[in-house]
Amino acid sequence: MYREKFISSLREEIAEAVAVHLTPVALRYDYCDVPLETNIRWQPMVLIIGNYSSGKSSFINEFLGAKIQDTGQAPTDDSFTVITHDDSVPETEGVQVTEERDGKALLNDPEYPFSTLRKQGERFASHFRLKKVNSPFLRHLAIIDTPGMLDSITERDRGYDYQEVIGDLAQKAGLVLVLFDAHKAGTVREAYKSIRETLSAHTSEDRIIFVLNRIDECASFNDLLRVYGTLCWNLSQITGRKDIPMIRLAYSPNASPVLSRNTGAPEYLPLLENQREDLKKAITETPRRRLDHLAAYVETHSERLGHYLEALLAWRMAFRKFRIQKTFTGFLCSLLGGSLATLGTMMAGLDDPVILAGAGGVATILLMLIWMTLFQKRLEGAFHQKKLDGLDTLTPLGDQTRKDSWEAIRERVQRHLERDEGRYSLFELRHDLFSVRRAHREAAHDIREALSELAKMTDEDFAEWEAHRLTDEAYEAEKKRLGLSDLEILKNSYRHMF
Ligand SMILES: Nc1nc2c(ncn2[C@@H]2O[C@H](COP(=O)(O)OP(=O)(O)OP(=O)(O)O)[C@@H](O)[C@H]2O)c(=O)[nH]1
Ligand SMILES: [Mg+2]
């Protein structure tokens, strides 16, 4: 278990780096509404989606080793259930639900990363819940069971935006399992939309595993091949790609009447046992893979935040230049007006220098005031609008990476400039851009280095490390004495010292 503990501790450090280096700047300039580390601080999640009755809940029960979720042939469960760990009841008393909480509590609890789903409203809150379970598999990851995807239902019937919820959860998840069953191999309408649009927009391919479940129900090996072929064909149609994603084959022995009675199991099943093992391994590997995602998360957000600030800086500089030019023009015009006033006063026969200077000065000030309140404001408004219309020219978009990052932040930049609350100076903006760029270079680099060191460590290394080391307390004490973090220990190979 030491390995998992170490991984959790690294995750905590990455979240801390984000909290210190990126979040304050990001919140200050409206780059995001909630702290950037909100989604990464919580433990890794495995999201399970798929057709109704494809065996999602049975699969989870099988994995946890107890009947935690309701199962049944018809669409059974139309709720999203977050299943997480709790050890208030010892495992020796059997795996069981130790606590349940409703959706409202879950959406409003800052300890959980679900506040972004609050906007889905009451109907969603009543279809969202938390179960705490004392299964050892949940120590370092959480599982989310979801309502089955249907053909006949619309967003209005559900009362909340189902695809948006799936997208939000997929974005937070370290792994997404998409389950199909042998009866409906890739033909359900909601599944089509989820795979084609929602998942591709919210997560990366390497985080998705397609699973053909309930394979024990195929009449023969030939039948299984036919179903598998159908699913491959449907998936390539849905994704619009020729290369078919990897599909794992699975079944839940306890949910199958034949298998649980131990009679007439299809003879091909034992040959496919390795598939179920691989799937289990992929799930238990989620915390480790999650670290790679977090490294990418830090890199992406520090880069985008830098790009965002660059755009604000470009806008501010252009605006300042425009303002200086126009103020100068206004001043020249007012000065001219003041001179004309002096000339007029002279022509009226007054030659007292004090009166002449007073008339010129008063006229200049009055004209400047009129300029500033009437013309300058209008000109600035027009300039602002022009810049908003030509937003894409604000920063250079040389390569595809810049274009992608601009695509991701463009709307936010626009919203910010439309409001233009200007709670910061040009100097502060430059300073913050500099520190974000440095965080991008250094923090992201440190994390990558530490992770590549971690990847080199084998299970034996961990076992050896654990054998030599140290209780958790002793390790923590030694770390503290040396003033090192887990990241530094990995990065500098200090682990040999322990
Ligand atoms: N033979 C067999 N039956 C299964 C398997 N997995 C699930 N079932 C059965 O299929 C039915 C549906 O299973 P569930 O686990 O409720 O499916 P679900 O995807 O959670 O369904 P919804 O929550 O309604 O979307 C139940 O009657 C299960 O007993 C399996 O691997 N083999
Ligand atoms: Mg279910």
SSE series: HHHEHEEHHEEHHEHEHEHHHHHHHHH
Strands ordered across the widest β-sheet: 3-4-2-5-1-6-7-8
Task: Work out the helicity level.
Answer: 55-70%
Name the bound molecules.
guanosine-5'-triphosphate, magnesium ion
Examine the secondary-structure arrangement and name the CATH architecture of the largest domain.
Answer: 3-Layer(aba) Sandwich
Broad structural category: alpha/beta
Kindly give the count of domains. 3
Q: Cα distance, first to last residue? A: 17 Å
Q: What's the multimeric state?
A: single chain
Shape: elongated
Task: Quote the average pLDDT.
Answer: 84
Biggest sheet layout: 8 strands, mixed
Regions with little confidence, pLDDT below 50 for 5+ residues: none
Radius of gyration: 31 Å
Provide the CATH top-level class of the largest domain.
Alpha Beta
Number of strand segments:
8
CATH topology of the largest domain: Rossmann fold
DSSP strand content: 5-15%
Describe this protein's structure.
The protein is of the alpha/beta class and 498 residues long. It has three domains: 1-41 and 288-456, no CATH class; 42-284, P-loop containing nucleotide triphosphate hydrolases (Rossmann fold, 3-Layer(aba) Sandwich), CATH 3.40.50; 457-497, no CATH class. Helices cover 58% and strands 9% of the residues. It has an eight-stranded mixed sheet with strand order 3-4-2-5-1-6-7-8, with helices on both faces. Helix 10 links the parallel strand 7 and strand 8. Helix 13 (286-347) crosses helix 15 (400-419) and helix 13 packs antiparallel against helix 16. The longest helix is centred in the middle third of the chain and has 62 residues, at 286-347. The relative contact order is 0.11. Guanosine-5'-triphosphate is lined by residues 52-58, 71-73, 75-77, 148, 213-214, 216-217, 251-252, 255-256.
